[in-house]
């Protein structure tokens, strides 16, 4: 079957940009015949090529979570989100590279090698963000129309910010996690990456459904209480606690300019304080590894995963250690050890319980500043006239522009974790948040024309206000387009 030009271009880009390592596996071109019906102008998933992060189960392609211990695993079933996409007529075009089991901020901790971002051939290889860096880069380089990722502490939004695409983390529990390889159960959320907000919204609408197979899926009774607010003008919160000293000037300038343009468009700006957020990152890196160490305990080569070879009589404890050593990368081993310690009897009260208390304080901070009530916490509506509350919060997605892979290799783990400082609070509270690209043109003598740097601007909303967050993101995108005209 002859494919239309724009459908051929997706396939051509998968080969053209293979050196960027966005994919770990690709569907056979012969299976993509439905591209022939693709209409590029429609915001619709039907016949569109959508990439799937490698920790989301698919029957036709291996699901390895970019880990050596799952290098031979093919799922006997599709994850619910994949099934819903297929039912809607979408085409699964491949599985994307990622940090092993979602543990990383730069998509460098992968059994398939690092994801590499280059905006031009002469540019130094840069981070595509993590852990959904492969999904973000696949969209940015037009190797697919949209992609699914997973977001535990910013793993969709951070790559979106670095690569210049839109990355959306819905409210926790709206999208099914059934068939998603778990990192941290209480935080993991399936996210969506696309070129623009409307593409992301189109995918979200197909996936936003209750799944009885997923015990964390929001039940219909609670979904019925979620409000679908429509706003012509937004009360926008500016979190003063996010104006940190390590914020790069380019990021601060883009944030300030975006707020100025929103104000000039008729939206009101209101400073808000979120004091508990300064402790959110520390709490996250206690809670997430603790859950991960429990989730990954089953990969012992007997129940799950590839088993190391041994001679007859080798003690089981030795085989277990060898299996884990060969199967897991260094970052995964580091976080498993951290989590195992956190859950130990001597550390439980001092670390894990205290981190859970901080998590509740973070949630309370957000509940206090939003006009809409959290339907999981409070049934009493607030007044829209309350001058101390806001509809959404607008802040940077990441404190820096995308760093070079060379500098990433030289970073210590703590410095790497700081990339998540603006994304983790919304994850701890389970809130919807989205990263929208704001362009910065800079002259580069090595390029024929100015490169387009991107800064991710993040919109955070109250739990269940996903439509409102998407609407606010669309406003930012339109304001940005007008400023570039």
From TrEMBL:
Query: Which InterPro entries does this one have?
Result: Amidase, Amidase_dom, AS_sf, GatA
Q: Where is this gene product found?
A: Mitochondrion
Question: What is the uppermost EC class here?
Answer: ligase
| Summary of the function given for this chain in its UniProt record | Allows the formation of correctly charged Gln-tRNA(Gln) through the transamidation of misacylated Glu-tRNA(Gln) in the mitochondria. The reaction takes place in the presence of glutamine and ATP through an activated gamma-phospho-Glu-tRNA(Gln).
What Enzyme Commission number(s) apply to this enzyme? 6.3.5.7
UniProt keywords, alphabetically = ATP-binding, Ligase, Mitochondrion, Nucleotide-binding, Protein biosynthesis
Q: Which Pfam families match?
A: Amidase (PF01425)
Q: Which GO biological process categories is it annotated with? A: glutaminyl-tRNAGln biosynthesis via transamidation; mitochondrial translation
- What GO terms are given for molecular function? ATP binding; glutaminyl-tRNA synthase (glutamine-hydrolyzing) activity
Q: Specify the Amidase domain's residue ranges.
A: 21-470
- Please give the GO cellular component terms listed in this UniProt entry: glutamyl-tRNA(Gln) amidotransferase complex; mitochondrion
- Naturally occurring in which organism (per UniProt): Didymella exigua CBS 183.55
The UniProt similarity line reads: Belongs to the amidase family. GatA subfamily.
Q: What protein does this entry describe?
A: Glutamyl-tRNA(Gln) amidotransferase subunit A, mitochondrial
This protein's assembly is summarised as:
Subunit of the heterotrimeric GatCAB amidotransferase (AdT) complex, composed of A, B and C subunits.
Give the reactions, separated by semicolons, that this protein catalyses.
Answer: L-glutamyl-tRNA(Gln) + L-glutamine + ATP + H2O = L-glutaminyl-tRNA(Gln) + L-glutamate + ADP + phosphate + H(+)
Q: Which residues form the active site?
A: 53, 131, 155
Top-level taxon of origin: Eukaryota
